[in-house]
Give the backbone structure.
Amino acid sequence: MIYWIILEKNVSLIMKETANIIWMSFLFSMASFFCIGQTNSIDSLKKKMWAEAEPGNKLQLLIDLCEHHQSINKDSLYQYARLAKKLELKNNTQNEKGAVMLILINTYLRLGNIDSATALVEEGLSNNTLKDPATRSMYFKLAALKVDCLGDASNYKDALSELYKIIYEAEQFRDSLVLSKNMSTIGVINYNLDHIAEAFNWYFKGISYINSNDSRFYSSAIVLYINLAETYRWVQQTDSASYYINKAIPLSQQTGNLFFLANSLRVKANIYKEKKEYPLAEKTMLECIEIREKTEGKLTMSNEQLAIAGIYLRSGNTDKAIKVLSGALLLNNVKGNEADPMRISYYQTLAKCYQLKGDSKNYQQTLEKIITSKDAFYQANSAHAIAELQTKYEVQKKESTIIKQQFDLTRQYYLFYGLLLLLLFITTVAWLLFKEDKKRQQLKMRQIQEEEKRLSIKAVTEAEEAERKRIAADLHDSLGAYAASIASNIDHLHISETNKGNRIALQQLRSNSQSIISQLSNTIWALKKEVFSLTAISDRIKIVIQRLQNNYPEVTFDVCENIETDYLLSPTHAFDLFQIMQESINNALRHSEGSHINILIEAGQQWKIIIEDNGKGINSQRLKAEGGNGLTNMRNRAQHAGWGILWQQNTPCGTSVIISSTTN
């Protein structure tokens, strides 16, 4: 058991350590006297606990105190956990063993010691089963803590698997408290994965199980209100966000939970930010940080820091935002954290700061870090794996429903034949009920067949996805290696300065080999993922522009994004769009003789991309003649994807290429 390493080295030390309890009690009493209290409830319990001399009573008061673990400073919580474990060992009591285990697990999670927390959870689950009514409540608490361990490690795939299992089990016992809490957690994970509609669906499912008259549901209700407010704020429905956060704040104050209150204030500050009420936003966020530092100490990388940086960014105080973000990233620069969604959010906000400042060097470096972190994140939490888990949950639920329906049908048959012996009238009514039930069963069977058909189509799609990834790997391992080898060998060839023809041919060969490598890289990039967002394509174009800038120092580039809806494209369509944009940029560089190229990406009800230059303009005769291979390829790609593409002359000079969605 891992917790022994931290809290106790050997059971034989118990008697020796017992004498230290009195000394620890004295130190804690002195600390409580000089330190500002957390809440009235916590202060009252602390006074009672330190005043109690009988070890059994002291342990029970400690357990009651640690029920408020979210509002207790994490360093103090660690000391309480140590004392609780010593008292439990000294009293050798079985009744409080489970409660002390929960204290230890919550303490490890607060301290970031996920491995120790996970080990204790697994030990607890092996001793507390779902089937035993006496241990069922403890089982569900430990199962939820297991999800917390996986979530803290950003392992959303396994976390969702455990959550679907918990919900399936809780539904069998109609445990509304467990269902409301864990449905909220599923919603949060979907929100973090940008599955907004699915997140809302789970939040409202959770609310449907809330009993507002039962204080046991207060915590679940607060979490659901906070999550709904944050998600509504994210989709810019600030009125709905305000409605739910104004329900969460007074309930958080009523329960005295500092963790919930801090999160409520953080969301409230972000709502003020969306309304451009920046002084109120900053004031509210600073109140939130003050509460959080009561429980967590000095904050390094946190949602609160990210939010205050966002407020500074929106209010025009860019340097202050950069200082907050870069300082936190520097303190948390640990290898292996690339897939942390919090780190991705920090990089995205920091990139916006550098872009607004015009700091292209730091902006490019931050973009590359975003791409690296996103790739690591999606590799660990692929949409394909999550979809499999959701399907598995639905299949389990459907099987349970069918079994219940079969049981109900059998019961109706017995009732029908029994009543047949009594009255002809009742027999007629029962026969009509049977016919109606049969129709419902036939309808459900058709629905099941349609679902099986959908799953078959999905299986084919997944097989195609696997083949696409295999092709990408083959391209990388074979053609990519050969192309790189050709480029390397060309660099080792030496042609006499007098042999001008061979030197020109060698330069052309070098250029062609580099083009092959670049094209292969772009193709593999498109094949590796299942879907691409417009922002991901925009990020890729920015990297291309940064590379082109070195070869065309006289040309300036601007990329403007106005993306309200981040559309998702298939790999084929994403590759076609990327190729059209890249060809448009290359044409402007080679033929326009202009000094500036502007790329505008807009996405609202539909998306549109404009690449324009200030050069000499395009030859209308060339367009009428269908252009060269490049223009023909661009037209063909757009036509294949169902998009519109248009070349037009700018006033007073230059050319615009407009690609627009006609089917999305």
In short: The first helix runs from residue 3 to 7. Strands lie at 532-533, 556-563, 568-569, 596-603, 607-613, 643-649, 655-661.
